[in-house]
Write a structure and sequence with these properties.
two-stranded antiparallel ribbon; 5 helices; de novo design (two linked rop proteins)
């Protein structure tokens, strides 16, 4: 049985991105792997870890805070990928494999952040907090 966060598409995308980045960094030469490679892996792994931790915290405020951290980690990942590409550690083909994941993940994180705890009450125009997790 999966935890709530494992069912979220945004979390699954974060895992996919982290796994792709792991594959890319394994083939880097030692100096590049020890510097940029480790940074990219940490940043990309942090995206999914923050989503999971936010769900586990139990409050909507904490969950939102951790999703914001996940978004920050995504931007950090993008930074390190840009550095790796500009230093010719990544090929165009490798970037083309990762770019769609990032392009899908960024808006999903924003949508997930906006949706945490906000579900319309049946027959009422007001929004309320609800303990169910959205299907993002």
């Amino acid at each position: 049985m999966r935890s709530n966060f494992e069912k979220l598409r945004v979390y699954q995308l974060a895992e996919e991105l982290a796994d792709e980045i792991w594959k890319l960094t394994r083939s880097m030469e030692p100096f590049a792997k020890d510097t940029i490679g480790k940074q990219i892996v940490r940043a990309s792994d942090s995206i999914g870890a923050n989503i999971a931790e936010g769900v586990g915290r139990g409050s909507f405020q904490d969950n939102r805070r951790f999703v914001r951290n996940a978004r920050g980690s995504l931007y950090e990942t993008k930074h390190w990928l840009r550095r790796a590409y500009s230093r010719r550690l990544l090929t165009d083909f490798q970037v083309e494999r990762i770019k769609p994941l990032i392009d899908e993940l960024a808006p999903k994180l924003n949508a997930y952040l906006k949706s945490i705890g906000m579900f319309p009450i049946q027959g009422n125009n007001q929004l309320t907090t609800d303990h169910r997790q959205p299907d993002n």
